[in-house]
Each structure stands twice: as structure tokens, then as C-alpha cells.
Write a structure and sequence with these properties.
With 180 residues, the protein is an alpha+beta fold. The protein contains 3 helices and 7 strands. The longest helix has 18 residues, at 2-19. The radius of gyration is 40 Å and the shape is elongated.
Length: 180
Amino acid sequence: MIRAHVIALLAMAALLAGCGDGGVGETRAWMKEVEGRTVSKVKPLPEPKTFQPHAYLPGAALDPFDQTKLLGELARMAQSSPNANQPDLNRPKEPLENFPLDTMRMVGTMKKGGVSYALVQIDRALYRVRPGQRLGQNYGRVTRVSDEAIEIRESVQDATGDWVERLANIELQHNQESSK
């Protein structure tokens, strides 16, 4: 019986504790005072534009998904803006421009008269290549010859027909027999 009285008293104390404000009354009063003094500086939103629908009559207008319309626009843009990366297509080609880069192997380097040359092997023939020389089938120009690689800047057309530059390397092929 004493135990039931103790439990009842504890329950009453818990209920009475829940009725009080817990010390937040002052905080709420301060927040209302600050809220009343605060001036908002938000600009009102502009009125939305009214949408004017347009009727699409399939027979009276061009098809918006017509491929020829897109190709014509791309051709017009290509003619109006000259591409700085476009190579000179009318110049005579150098002999090494007839071979793709993946058929060329750099097998060594040499210096002659202060100019660095790379030794390039194509099939069984050996060629000297220096900076400024052209090689490869993508209008490549040798930009640098080092002991480890030949650096080449190529001009190729992308999917839209614009000429873009890309870099390529031919690295030195180490002899398999000397490494054994």
C-alpha cells in the first residue's frame, strides 16, 4: 500500500512538472520583442510572365527535328567562322605524311649541327626527324624531339567538322635483346 502511494505521488509530481513553462517564458517574450523590432528587407517577387501558346500546324512549318536543317546551320557556321586550327590542305605533303603514326617506331636520337634528330623506323627503312617536320596522316607537326620521345601536334576534324588540335607521342622503343 505504501508502494502504491509512492507511485501515485511520483506520477502527480511528474504531471505538475509538465504544466510549468520550464523557464522558456522569458525567452519567448524576448523573441517576440526582437521579432517586432526587425524590419524585413526582402524585395517582392516580380509578377510571372503570362504564357502565350502558339499553335503548331505540321503542314505549314518546318519540322523542328529535321536533320537537313541542322546540317545546313552547321555548314553556315563553318563558312562564317574560319578555324585557326585548319591545316593548309593545298601544300605538298612530305614523305612521312603517307604513314600512320602507329607504324612508326622511334629507335634512337642524334645531334647534328646543334639540332636534335629522332631516328624513326618504318618497316625496314630509317628516317631522321627534326622539330618542325611533318609526319603522320593527321597533319602532324613535330614540336619537340627528346631522348625519350617525339612530341607531335596533329590537326583533326571533330564530329561537327571543326578542326581541333591534339597531342601525340612516339616513344623510344628499347631494344629487347639489350635488356636480356
